[in-house]
C-alpha cells in the first residue's frame, strides 16, 4: 500500500531531548501531574484507613467481607496510582540521564575542537622554531659566556699582591720578605 499511496511525510522534526524533558519535567507539568497523583494516593490512604477501622469494628461475616472487598478495591487503585507515579519519575530520570549524556558529548566535542585548534597552532609555531637554530644559539651563548668569563677574570686580577704566600705567614709567623 505504501508504494501506491506513498508515505506520509513528517514535516515536524522529532523532539529533542530537552524538548521532551521540558514537556515531562517542566515545572508546571510535573507539578500538576505529580500533585494530582500524590493527592489521589493520599485520599486513597485516608479511605483505606477508614475501611481498616470498619473491618476491626465489624463482626466476621458478610458485612465485614463487603468492607474488605471495598478496601481491596481502594488498595488496587492506590497501587495503580503509585505505579503511574513511579513510571513518571522513571521517565523523567531516563530523560535526565540522556540529557546529561548529550551535554557530556557536547562538552567532549568542544574539548576536541579546542585541542585540534591548539594542535594546529603548535604545529605552526614549531615550523618557525628549528632545532639547528637553537643549537647554534646555544653554541653562541656558550662562546659569549666564555669570553665574558675571561673578561671578568682579567678585570678581577689584583695588583701588588704576591702570589707566593707560605703557610707560616698564614699561621702568624714572620712575613716573607720580597726582594724587588
- Class by helix and strand content? mainly alpha
Q: How do the helices and strands follow one another from N- to C-terminus? A: HHHHHH
Q: Approximately what portion of the residues adopt beta-strand conformation?
A: under 5%
Q: Report low-confidence residues grouped into runs of 5 or more.
A: none
Mean pLDDT: 80
Shape: elongated
Question: Count of DSSP E strands?
Answer: 0
**Biggest beta sheet attributes:** none
Radius of gyration using CA atoms only: 46 Å
Helix content: over 70%
**For the terminal residues, how far apart are their CA atoms?**
129 Å
Tally of individual helices: 6
Structure report:
The protein has 180 residues and is mainly alpha-helical. It has a domain at 15-125. Helix content is 78%, strand content 0%. It contains six helices and no strands. It has helices spanning 2-5, 17-25, 27-57, 62-128, 131-155, 167-171. Helix 2 (17-25) runs antiparallel to helix 4 (62-128). The longest helix is centred in the middle third of the chain and has 67 residues, at 62-128. The N and C termini lie far apart (129 Å).
Q: Can I get a quick summary?
A:
With 180 residues, this protein is mainly α.
Topology:
Elements: H1 2-5, H2 17-25, H3 27-57, H4 62-128, H5 131-155, H6 167-171
Helix pairs in contact: 2-3, 2-4, 3-4
Which tags fit this structure?
6 helices, about 180 residues, coiled coil, mainly alpha, elongated, single chain
Amino acid at each position: 500500500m505504501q508504494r501506491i499511496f506513498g508515505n506520509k511525510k513528517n514535516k515536524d522534526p522529532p523532539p529533542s531531548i530537552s524538548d521532551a524533558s521540558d514537556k515531562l519535567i517542566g515545572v508546571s507539568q510535573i507539578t500538576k501531574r505529580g500533585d494530582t497523583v500524590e493527592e489521589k494516593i493520599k485520599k486513597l490512604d485516608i479511605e483505606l484507613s477508614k475501611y481498616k477501622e470498619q473491618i476491626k469494628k465489624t463482626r466476621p461475616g458478610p458485612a465485614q467481607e463487603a468492607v474488605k472487598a471495598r478496601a481491596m478495591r481502594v488498595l488496587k487503585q492506590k497501587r495503580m496510582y503509585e505505579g503511574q507515579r513511579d513510571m513518571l519519575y522513571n521517565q523523567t530520570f531516563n530523560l535526565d540521564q540522556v540529557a546529561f549524556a548529550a551535554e557530556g558529548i557536547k562538552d567532549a566535542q568542544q574539548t576536541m575542537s579546542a585541542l585540534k585548534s591548539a594542535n594546529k597552532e603548535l604545529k605552526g609555531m614549531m615550523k618557525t622554531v628549528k632545532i639547528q637554530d637553537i643549537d647554534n644559539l646555544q653554541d653562541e651563548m656558550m662562546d659569549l659566556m666564555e669570553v665574558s668569563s675571561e673578561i671578568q677574570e682579567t678585570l678581577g686580577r689584583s695588583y701588588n699582591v704576591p702570589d707566593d704566600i707560605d703557610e707560616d705567614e698564614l699561621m702568624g709567623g714572620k712575613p716573607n720578605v720580597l726582594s724587588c
